[in-house]
Amino acid sequence: MVRNVTYRLFVDLERAPSSAEVAEAVGIDENGVRASWARLHDVHAIVLDPQTGGLRMASPFSAVPTSFRVRTGDQWWYANCAWDAFGICAALDVDGQIETSCPGSGEPLSIAVRGHRPDDERLLFHCLVPAARWWDDIGHT
User: Fold this and answer.
1) What's phi and psi for 24, nearest 5 deg?
2) Backbone angles phi, psi at 9, to 5 degrees
3) Does 6 share its domain with 52?
4) What is the pLDDT of residues 16-63, one digit of tens each?
5) 124 within 8 A of 118, measured Cβ to Cβ
6) Distance CA 118, CA 126 (A)
7) What average pLDDT is seen over the chain?
8) CA 62, chain centre distance (Å)
9) How far, in Å, CA of 53 to CA of 30, rounded?
10) Residue 39's CATH number
11) Which domain does 92 fall in, by range?
């Protein structure tokens, strides 16, 4: 239940919810939310900020600014990576606009997502880190 409410609040509040906000919505104390978040973090369902214990990632959403911005309607979201940028449109079941840059050249990229598809299907998504190693340092990946 904490996981579902965390995601719902992330969307409703248009930002990462605090443990207090989740606790109020679920009807448990903050310690219960933090314990649930720790379990979710341990199974790679969310990522917690090591300094604050708050949310850093609730994929596909990022609680911190990244180079992957997604506009859906009049709302801007940060995604954790290019893959998650498309995931935001999919999770919200809406069209969107992804703004980022090519990591190799620095060239700005703007990709429209319409009807669950990118406007330019020639684009390639390349992962520099093999998927089996993503969780070695998920913040860098």
Assistant:
1) -65, -40
2) -65, -35
3) yes
4) 999 999 999 999 999 999 999 999 999 999 999 999 999 999 989 999
5) no
6) 16
7) 91
8) 4
9) 12
10) 1.10.10
11) 68-118
